[in-house]
Specification:
The chain is α/β, with parallel strands linked by helices and 427 residues long. It is built from 13 helices and 20 strands.
């Protein structure tokens, strides 16, 4: 049995989508198991660009089954818009090629309104969420009383009953926090959403049973991570995190497949660091260098269009993510973006209250105090976007990649030098 997992080791947007797309032809099933349409995974090949949010990158290959597993939160309207976009470009996707878990939870319009009210209440401490109702849907899942799962969603009588129970209570809570918020009507939501349910129904199955069968039949599974380790609800930079286990810790709970089945865990890192939204970021470059990285790397959010905060490579943070997830190797992405700098910095430790620290802090105020201790590496001038072998990289680019592997403590097996599928060095 071969199962591979692709996990972002930083704060998301490490180019997981590109790696998943590259590895898909070697697999039978691609599984997305957490998050929702807060994720934005860009895949490029043959001059075409695809921006995927809820659909696994496997959807671009008609040889594999794409599974949206139990841990995902699904906005049905966003899902259908995305599916229609893919269908118009690549043809229809039959239900047996795209399965949605009947245990997954559903996002409704009141989740967005609730989130807007919560974020507003935090004022300048706002988490800086994507405003897609992700956290509020997971909140309902954990709270249970207001949760509506896919299995309920596709049963019209159950959906109607649940909406009539939930919506009046949501209105009370949302209006108390924000009297300007819209007032929701259960029947209006029901009428709109039953039409979405009719289209989704053929795709909704018990994906856990399907995946267990696939394991028994020795099918090759590929797990597509979303977000990144430092956004993990339990292990990330709380409260500036997403609301699910976005490190490797979430694969088992989100898919129902034991992590014992996974025999290759690829940790994906950018050659530098980015973060969208609030929260401490020790290596952030709020200067011309950060601006240059943002422009060259086109570091603007896929989902919200927000400029991503950019900084030097933080090996304390990424190393923590790697250990948390138990990776076998690293994929270092967007190396080309760093061409042309005189010198580059890799943060190998923090100084906190005069102490050298290499354990990633558990408290956000400690992280906010962390001053990066850098290892300086000379830069390279050459354009590396055409390089296809490690041996052909400029010597300083090679040194830089080696230093990332050495400081984090895992071998680098993939280096990416451009967004296209073929701009990849596989060792
Ligand atoms: P994901 O969320 O982890 O899948 O990452 P995103 O798709 O949000 O962000 C990564 C961005 O970098 C996308 O726009 C990719 O097309 C782009 N990209 C991927 N690999 C490379 C690379 O090696 N070089 C450059 N310049 N861009 C890349
Ligand atoms: P991919 O899969 C980068 C960030 C948001 C915010 C925090 C909480 O493309 O790597 P949420 O809407 O999830 O409640 O927002 O998490 N965030 C991401 N940042 N990439 C992502 O996904 C992200 N998904 C959520 O910016 O700081
Ligand atoms: Mg992204």
């Amino acid at each position: 049995m071969t199962a591979t997992s692709v996990i972002g080791l930083q704060w998301g947007d490490e180019a997981k989508g590109k790696i998943v797309d590259l590895l898909t032809p070697e697999h039978d099933v691609v599984v997305r198991y957490l998050g929702g349409n807060n994720a934005g995974h860009t895949v490029k090949f043959d001059g075409e660009t695809y921006k995927l949010s809820l659909l696994p990158a496997g959807i671009l290959h008609n040889t594999v089954v794409s599974v949206i597993a139990t841990g995902v939160v699904i906005n049905p309207k966003a899902f259908l818009t995305e599916l229609d976009g893919i269908t118009s470009r690549r043809g229809a996707v039959p239900p047996e090629r795209l399965m949605i878990s009947d245990r997954a939870h559903v996002i409704f319009p009141y989740h967005m309104a609730e989130e807007a009210a919560f974020e507003k209440a935090r004022g300048c401490d706002a988490i800086g969420t994507t405003m897609r109702g992700i956290g509020t849907c997971y909140r309902d899942k954990a709270g249970r009383t207001h949760a509506i799962r896919m299995g309920d969603f596709i049963r019209p009588e159950t959906l109607k009953k649940r909406l009539h129970e939930v919506v009046p209570q949501k209105n009370i809570m949302i209006q108390a926090l924000n009297p300007d918020a819209p007032v929701f009507d259960a029947d209006t939501i029901f009428n709109e959403y039953t039409a979405y349910a009719d289209r989704l129904r053929p795709h909704v199955v018990d994906t856990t049973a399907f995946l267990h069968r696939a394991v028994r039949e020795n099918k090759k599974l590929l797990f597509e991570g979303a977000q990144g380790c430092l956004l993990d609800i339990d292990h990330g930079t709380f409260p500036y995190v997403t609301s699910s286990n976005s490190s490797g810790c979430g694969i088992h709970s989100g898919s129902g497949v034991s992590e014992r089945e996974i025999n290759r865990m690829i940790g994906v890192v950018k050659a530098y660091t980015t973060r969208v939204g609030g929260g401490a970021f020790p290596t952030e470059l709020d200067n011309e260098i950060g601006q240059r990285i943002r422009e060259v790397g086109r570091e603007y959010g896929t989902v919200t269009g927000r400029p991503r905060r950019c900084g030097w490579f933080d090996a304390v943070a990424a190393g923590y993510g790697a250990r948390l997830s138990g990776v076998d190797c690293l994929a270092v992405m967007l190396l080309d973006v760093l061409s042309g700098h005189e010198e580059l910095q890799i943060c190998e430790a923090y100084e906190i209250d005069g102490q050298r620290v290499t354990d990633f802090p558990s408290q956000i105020d400690e992280l906010a105090k962390a001053k990066p201790i850098y290892r300086t590496i000379a830069g390279w001038k050459e354009d590396i976007t055409g390089v296809r072998r490690l041996a052909d990289l400029p010597v300083n680019a090679r040194r830089y990649v080696d230093a990332i592997g050495e400081v984090i403590g895992y071998p680098v097996e993939i280096v990416s030098v451009g967004p296209d599928r073929d701009q990849t060095i596989l060792e």
